[in-house]
Amino acid sequence: MNVSVYDYLNVRGKKKNGPKMLLPWLLSAIFYWDCDCDAFLNVGTIVRRHTLRVPHPNTFGSFPPTTSAPTITRNRHVLQVLSDAMATRTKDSTTIQHLHRHQSPKRNIVFQNTNVYTEQIPFSSVVPSENPYEMLVPDIGSSVEDDVRSVLGLETKGSSVLDVSVEFVDPHTGAMSLCSKCFGESLLPEMKDAVVGHLTKILGLYQSILPSTTSSDVSSRYKARVVGTRGRKRGTKCPRWHVDHVPVRLVMSLVGPGCMYVTEESAIDRTALNNLDLTDTQTANNRIVSSPHENDNNNSSTSAGCMDQASAGTAVLLMGRAWQEEEEEEEGNAKRRHDTQATPLAAVHKSPELDLFEGRVLLTVDVVPTNLPPCSDH
Q1: Is the pTM of this model over 0.85?
Q2: Residue 126 sits in the same domain as residue 209
Q3: 245 lies in which domain range?
Q4: In total, how many domains does the chain have?
Q5: Do residues 173 and 252 share a domain?
């Protein structure tokens, strides 16, 4: 049964017994509050109506009766403080978890029947066969030196990794800022214009997939990040199969191999994806993703059957968990239908495997929630 905190303190009997009955209430409420026992404590943070779901007396000590009696008014302030604290705690613990889901635009129709959208955006160089993005790959000497210093337990110089990020609203402005931070004054005017034009197309694509406003009067900010690495250790940032906790993320390799993603939902073990706790990445990957036809062929055919890998110059837009959870909420939290018409879940993907000193330049684009402070540039 559900009774309000104050109604429950209208205990039967004499008024002097009220304070004695309050102590078990506070202790039990705090106990269940700390244990996050939602079956006992149900805090309505929207209407500020806090109710307690009372278990049977035989299951947890003895509780006072709920019939009417004189109200203990002097203890109302204490209970209000407790209720407000519980409401604040509940709100704070879920703010970041549900931020993208509640503050971001609705799922784009592009992801109605798929969780991955790809588009080729090749770079048109003013000089044939010249790719200016290769300038962003750290040299081999710096990579080797940092690897040696890392093995010896010394502080690395950091010159083996390029990490640049900018926030923007207008794609062209963001492209100019990103180009300036990456290349400085090292590009000729014609090449700089070509790079800015190329980046503008990429940032514009993301903005077209994820609308530029979360409401009629609030403009979204976007964050573009370029990371240049060399070798397996620094180039393979996310070697394990995973999903992103965002509405949608654009991932594009400007130099080197692109990301790998799963194309068949039947090959994914979502339970293992969400709950598996293994230190060995290869073992975990084999548990999370397995070919539905692996019994018919050897393991070498697994990637060809249920996975795909993007090439350099291919923009990959990966639907994240925020849009998946948004869809589940709109369906009334009903159980997902396991059929071919079911709404796609978040895209499962990972970084590609690189050769020993292979270079890679990766561009990612995300939306920044409107109620967060601006992200710092690294």
Answers
A1: no
A2: yes
A3: 113-259+310-368
A4: 2
A5: yes
15: Cα within 13 Å, side-chain hemisphere: 6
Cα(118)–Cα(28) distance, integer angstroms: 54
- For residue 79, CA distances in Å to 1, 20, 42, 86, 90 come to 20, 15, 15, 11, 17
What does each of the 378 residues of the chain score in pLDDT, given as a tens digit?
444 444 444 444 444 455 555 555 555 444 444 443 333 333 333 333 333 333 444 444 444 444 444 444 445 554 565 566 555 544 444 444 444 444 556 778 888 889 999 999 999 888 878 899 999 998 887 666 666 666 666 665 555 689 999 999 999 999 999 999 999 999 999 999 999 999 999 999 999 997 654 443 345 789 999 999 988 766 567 889 999 999 999 999 999 999 999 999 999 999 999 998 888 989 999 999 987 655 554 444 444 578 999 999 999 999 999 888 876 666 554 455 444 456 789 999 999 988 888 999 999 999 987 544 444 343
Structure tokens at 35: 């244990």
Domain end call among 30, 65, 95:
95
